[in-house]
Amino acid sequence: MIRKFENNDINDIMQIWKNENIKAHQFIQKEYWENNYKYVKEILPNAEIYVYVIEKNIVGFIGLNQNHIEGIFIDTKNQCKGIGTKLLNKVKENRNTLILNVYKKNINAISFYKKNNFVIKNERIDKKTNEIEYTMAWSK
């Protein structure tokens, strides 16, 4: 089931955010994510967030800032079950375009977005991590 974020969801989604960022971005030091945890926890509720719930447990979420996807995070045990696609389709319902940034070395995420009709528009260096990231876009 997909539903809108509620304030008491914050600890669950932050745990998924931290764990999955560390796992998916092994090319970035773990401390980067740990050091940004508090900041992200403060600003995340300002985003438009949808959570995916199985048996009362949050197993994934998507966060947006207008038409910019800040991230899709699914806990490891529930990946490759279509949850990310369902969350993505939920936010596509009311939008004509979506954009996002993804690290070039995050091959699984790039494949996922390409499978969901996103295309690479450009690349740049993320100054915070010194990693190359792509800007990808989707439109109806």
What does this 3D model show about the protein?
- The protein has 140 residues and is an alpha+beta fold.
- Helix content is 34%, strand content 36%.
- The chain has four helices and seven strands.
- It has helices spanning 10-24, 30-43, 83-92, 107-115, and strands at 2-4, 48-54, 57-65, 68-74, 97-103, 119-126, 131-139.
- Strands 1-2-3-4-5-7-6 form a seven-stranded mixed beta sheet, with helices on both faces.
- β2 (48-54) and β3 (57-65) form a beta hairpin.
- The longest helix is centred in the N-terminal third of the chain and has 15 residues, at 10-24.
- The radius of gyration is 14 Å and the shape is globular.
- The model has no long low-confidence stretch (mean pLDDT 94).
Write the layout of secondary structure elements.
Blueprint (H helix, E strand, L loop, with lengths): L1 E3 L5 H15 L5 H14 L4 E7 L2 E9 L2 E7 L8 H10 L4 E7 L3 H9 L3 E8 L4 E9 L1
Parallel strand pairs: 4-5
Antiparallel strand pairs: 1-2, 2-3, 3-4, 5-7, 6-7
